[in-house]
Design a protein that fits this description.
alpha+beta; 2 helices; 14 strands
Length: 239
């Protein structure tokens, strides 16, 4: 009886762990869904901004229409466009030329835009659409800029596509702002860090970033930054 009691207890503990894991995955997906909703709601305002690398400044815009988020950036005096097509299970990147959209080759996801270090998947924040992530236990690392955050970790659902095998996102427990995103390669090393340096509060009470810093890390020593770019948003007009 004692043996069966131990077995039963072991099964109960294991089942509890499975339920807790499933709940954590569900909660992580809910947090990321909130971030996607926030991005789409701001995109409906035709948001303007720029990518800055040193003295180079590349204007860009984003707008959301239904299940599509359109990004445009200026290169060589011409505006170029790509879209994020949001599906039930994943988001696809589309190149748009003369009104015609074609699926972007996965090998182009990590291609830098207009002489910057920012890629198509960086600008689109493609990792916000990865599902099945988990919330890591609270720790000393959970606090960013004096704010208590959830750390959501998500694995790339299409291994080998894009720059990152996994990402970690620090999401403010109070207002839902993403303060930091770390993107890791298949080797487990930090490849890029995105961090919010300033935010703006809108008339509807939601928050959106004003400036985001992107650090490219040294492949041999991921504690060293070898390139630095900024995504800077114009003031979003009040509704």
């Amino acid at each position: 009886m004692k043996t069966w009691g131990k077995v039963l207890l072991g099964i109960m503990v294991a089942a509890g762990g499975i339920v807790a894991s499933a709940q954590a995955e569900h909660e992580a997906d809910v947090l990321l869904a909130g971030m996607r909703k926030m991005m789409v709601s701001q995109g409906s305002r035709d948001v303007l901004g720029s990518i800055r690398k040193g003295s180079l400044k590349v204007p860009f815009s984003l707008s959301a229409r239904g299940d599509t988020i359109a990004f445009q950036y200026k290169q060589g005096g011409e505006w170029k466009r790509f879209d994020v097509k949001i599906g039930e299970k994943k988001a696809a990147l589309m190149l748009v030329n003369e009104g015609k959209a074609v699926v972007m080759a996965p090998g182009a996801y990590a291609q830098p835009i207009a002489g910057t270090d920012v890629t198509y998947e960086d600008l689109s924040l493609r990792f916000l659409y990865w599902k099945g992530g988990s919330i890591l236990p609270d720790s000393a690392d959970s606090r960013i800029k004096g704010r208590d955050c959830y750390i959501v970790q998500a694995a790339n659902p299409s291994p080998g596509v894009g720059q990152f095998a996994t990402v970690r996102m620090w999401i403010d427990k109070e207002n839902g702002t993403v303060w930091q995103v770390d993107g890791y390669g298949a080797d487990g090393k930090l490849k890029k860090r995105f961090s919010i340096t300033s935010i703006q509060r809108l008339s509807d009470g939601t928050w959106f970033f004003k400036q985001m810093k992107m650090e490219v890390r040294n492949p041999q020593n991921d504690k060293r930054t070898i390139a630095l770019d900024y995504l800077e948003m114009d003031d979003i007009p009040k509704k």
